[in-house]
Amino acid sequence: MRKTTNQKAWFMVLPMLVLVAFSAIIPLMTVVNYSVQDTFGNNEFFWVGLEWFEEILASERVHDALIRQIIFTLIILAIEVPLGIFVALNMPKKSGLWTTLCLVLIALPLLIPWNVVGTIWQIFGRIDIGLLGYMLDQLGFDYNYTQDATDAWITIIIMDVWHWTSLVVLLCYAGLKSIPDAYYQAAKIDQASRWSIFRYIELPKMKGVLLIAILLRFMDSFMIYTEPFVVTGGGPGNATTFLSIDLVKMAIGQFDLGPAAAFSLIYFLVILLISWVFYTVMVQSDKGAGA
Amino acid sequence: MDLSWMAWTLPTAIFFISIACALLVMIIWAIKAPQAPRRGILGLETTPGDRLFISLLGSAFICLGWLAAFGSPIWGGLLVCIIFGGMVFKWV
């Protein structure tokens, strides 16, 4: 039988290509163009070569923001992933009203816009009118997220955990629900301990969704902007100035478009590299499991 | 069409045209001589497209590393990038 070759299906990709071009490729090209030039507005640009890249790579301010960002992301992953697994493991497995209620309650924080989450926690943590701040103050704790760097960090971390652990829970729960009962029955016959069931049945079966959860939480926490900006504005001092907050300060606050463009390209490359590593691990482990 | 808002320069235009040409060459190569994915020294299963991506991403970091260590110009870094790209296509 003669194989029919029909490449017309490629035209179906064109609308998506046009969309990606306007939403990503053209803006990215513009950022690259800005990163090698200086401007004082009025659409006038002056060639500076790689000067901005050298400045950003040597900038202590950027190094500090990067260190803060890495610490924040590691703390977020270290809390949200185990907590998400723990909650998912303790969710009711059988379908019913209780399960539906649990799922709706857990999904609720995910439905709230980022700036609203920031506003909620900004008010919640205030010692004069916020429930959390007022209670801590009454209990004798010296809590003030606007003046104390540790308090600001704790507030932002708890806020992020409250907002995003649900995502990990839902993904892990979906992974757990896909495990056939036969696996648990076999474990019961073998008198496997709870830890063994988790280690040899649940964790391997959750691996795929767990990697997606880690990737999503990594990318999102590494690019976090709105919530800490609304709560602390990057303060006190620069204590919670993460990479994206620093970038926006540079681009819009100081109107240093050239350095900000170089900064955003380096930022983009770091995220691209780490996301590629995660993606490769995911794909390769899938192939390994399928082999 | 006025593209002055994109602030084009000759070097950045050459940079993007080079990437577009590389993609075009890869497409023609894939049509003329299709290649199955292979497993290289990293133990990863890669297609020629994957290898191009690894070369470009790696080259970006090599250039940044060169800039941080020696400053501009980065001709030496570009030479390292070409050698790195060749190694990726040969062994990865």
Unreliable runs of chain B: none
CATH topology of the domain at 81-251 in chain A: MetI-like fold
Helix content of chain B: 55-70%
Query: Strand tally of chain A, please?
Result: 2
Low-confidence stretches of chain A: none
The quaternary structure here is heterodimer
Mean pLDDT level of chain B: 91
**Sheet with the most strands: spatial strand order of chain B:** 1-2
Largest sheet of chain A: 2 strands, antiparallel
* Termini gap of chain B: 43 Å
* Sequence of secondary-structure elements of chain A: HEEHHHHHHHHHHH
* Helix fraction of chain A by DSSP (H/I, runs of at least 4): over 70%
Q: Termini distance of chain A?
A: 31 Å
General shape of chain B: flat
Which CATH architecture of the domain at 81-251 in chain A is right?
Orthogonal Bundle
* Biggest sheet features of chain B: 2 strands, antiparallel
Average the pLDDT over all residues of chain A and give the rounded result. 91
Most extensive interface = A-B, 27 and 23 residues
Describe the secondary structure blueprint for this structure.
The complex is a heterodimer of chains A (291) and B (92).
Chain A: H1 14-35, E1 37-39, E2 45-47, H2 51-58, H3 60-89, H4 97-107, H5 114-124, H6 131-138, H7 149-177, H8 181-189, H9 194-222, H10 226-231, H11 243-253, H12 257-290
Chain B: H1 10-32, E1 38-39, E2 45-46, H2 48-70, H3 75-91
Antiparallel strand pairs in B: 1-2
Helix pairs in contact in B: 2-3
Structure description:
The complex is a heterodimer of chains A (291) and B (92). Chain A is an all-alpha fold and 291 residues long. Chain A has a domain at 81-251: Orthogonal Bundle (MetI-like fold). Chain A has helices at residues 14-35, 51-58, 60-89, 97-107, 114-124, 131-138, 149-177, 181-189, 194-222, 226-231, 243-253, 257-290, and strands spanning 37-39, 45-47. In chain A, strand 1 (37-39) and strand 2 form a beta hairpin. In chain A, helix 7 packs across helix 9. Chain B has 92 residues and is mainly α. Chain B has one domain (4-91). Chain B has helices at 10-32, 48-70, 75-91, and strands at residues 38-39, 45-46. In chain B, strands 1-2 form a two-stranded antiparallel sheet. The longest helix of chain B has 23 residues, at 10-32. Classes of the chains: A mainly alpha (291), B mainly alpha (92). Chains A and B meet through helix 1, helix 2 and helix 12 of A and helix 1 and helix 2 of B.
